[in-house]
Design brief:
Structural class: alpha+beta
Strand content: 15-25%
Distance between the termini: 22 Å
Number of strands: 21
Helix content: 25-40%
Largest sheet: 4 strands, antiparallel
Oligomer: single chain
Shape: elongated
Length: 415
């Protein structure tokens, strides 16, 4: 039975201003979990969704995924709402626009009345729902959304015409976000293509694309990293109270407490950590999909300490902006692969200090370094401006949702 509590939104379309209060119902009263299964032979690469490639529909980006070799899978259809059951805070939520099958770590919601699809999908994609799921997973290292708890979530339920009006507005905002996201991806792809041409390919000494004033200046020099940079091995023996930094493949050098939402290392255990300064570069040997030999990132957030598992170095010659852009290419990857001894740790590159500092680095004249760096930095500014635009749209949408949906946060069950 529906909860008879009546509620009102802060913001309402004029044509519904006199329609009275909304009902408050449990999510389980309007949705059910799909349990229709299929086997491995029925899977298709273009319609298979797992927690790795699930996406919010406004992104419009389909990531490649490998089909599993065995297991059972949940069928879904157009309009169903797919939610990753692992780490709800990642907000991997998507409303299906094709029929397919999902892995067992993806929950498939289906509305009992298909007219509610779009409205309920926006509710489930809201921060309020995600925060509610996380509240029930506190203290868990790998939090999962609990199915029974999800169904207890209280949702506001206006009349069907008002639902459709709200959903239509939010969907139009999603479409704007999608269009701007595609533009952002195109800008990133354009920059990546230019970088491939502005730096020489492996074994080459001149780039494919060169600024006119440098076309007749000859080949680039290639030097070893150790010739233009020095290792930084100063340890925190005085137990300075400095932020613990980490080098992530996706975000570069960040404060550990920001990246993990908590500090992983006790301040008492930092005596052997390296002290790093602005413009120091850090190599993290951990391998990942987006950093197949580990990332090299530039520190731009001030003095801190880094794990001794990292290699820290500082350039003494050349333009640091130029080198920062170079390390975002994959031109240097093959050298590390050739030199690495993987040993027992297949998730890390095991490379000696001598081999690492022998990394070949392209070294054109300083003026050409600066020209390339300035050009690529200007592209970064355009990309950042586009990303900021998307963030503003998302912030606007989230703020609008808080006013369009009647507030039920105070009515949620406690744990």
């Amino acid at each position: 039975m529906a909860d008879t509590t009546k509620i009102l939104p802060k913001l309402r379309f004029p044509e519904f201003a006199n329609d009275g209060e909304w009902e408050k119902v449990k999510l389980g009263e309007v949705v059910t979990f799909c349990n229709s299964k299929c086997n491995r032979s029925e899977l298709r690469i273009d319609t298979y969704i797992s927690t790795e490639n699930i996406r919010q529909d406004f992104l419009g980006i389909k990531r490649a995924v490998n089909l599993p070799q065995n297991g059972s899978f949940t069928k879904f259809r157009i309009g169903d709402i797919l939610v990753s059951n692992i780490r709800p805070y990642l907000k991997k939520i998507w409303q299906a626009n094709f029929d397919g099958a999902a892995s067992n770590d993806v929950l498939v919601f289906r509305t009992k009345n298909q007219n509610y699809d779009e409205y309920v999908a926006h509710l489930i994609k809201s921060d309020a729902f995600v925060n509610y799921c996380m509240e029930g997973a506190k203290g868990v290292k790998m939090p999962r959304g609990d199915k029974s708890t999800m169904l207890e979530y209280s949702i506001p339920l206006p009349s069907l015409p008002e639902q459709q009006k709200i959903a239509s507005l939010l969907t139009s905002l999603d479409e704007q976000i999608s269009a701007n996201t595609k533009k952002l991806e195109a800008l990133k792809a354009h920059k990546k293509s230019l970088m491939q041409q502005l730096f020489p390919a492996n074994g080459e000494k001149t780039p494919k694309l060169r600024f006119p004033e440098f076309k007749n200046t000859g080949e680039w020099k290639v030097v070893k990293l150790g010739e233009i940079a020095k290792r930084i091995t100063l340890k925190n023996k005085d137990k300075k109270s400095l932020p613990v930094l980490t080098n992530s493949a996706s975000g570069g050098i960040v404060k550990q407490e920001d990246y993990f939402d908590r500090e992983i290392v006790s301040k008492d255990n930092l005596i052997n950590y390296y002290i790093v300064s602005d413009d120091d570069f850090v190599y993290n040997p951990r391998i990942s999909t987006i950093a197949p030999v580990g990332p090299i990132s530039r520190n731009k957030i001030g003095e801190g300490v880094m794990s001794p598992l990292y290699t820290v170095f500082r350039f003494v010659e050349g333009d640091v902006d130029f080198f920062e852009h170079y390390f975002k290419t994959n031109n240097w990857h093959q050298y590390l692969k050739d030199k690495a001894n993987f040993g027992a740790r297949f998730d890390r590159m095991n490379i000696s200090t001598e081999d690492f500092m022998g990394l070949p680095i392209p070294f054109p004249p300083l003026t050409e370094q600066q020209k390339i760096a300035s050009f690529l930095s200007s592209l970064d500014d355009i990309i950042q401006a586009q990303d900021n635009k998307i963030q503003k749209l998302e912030t606007y949408k989230n703020g609008l949702m808080q006013q369009l949906f009647a507030n039920t946060i105070d009515c949620q069950p406690t744990y």
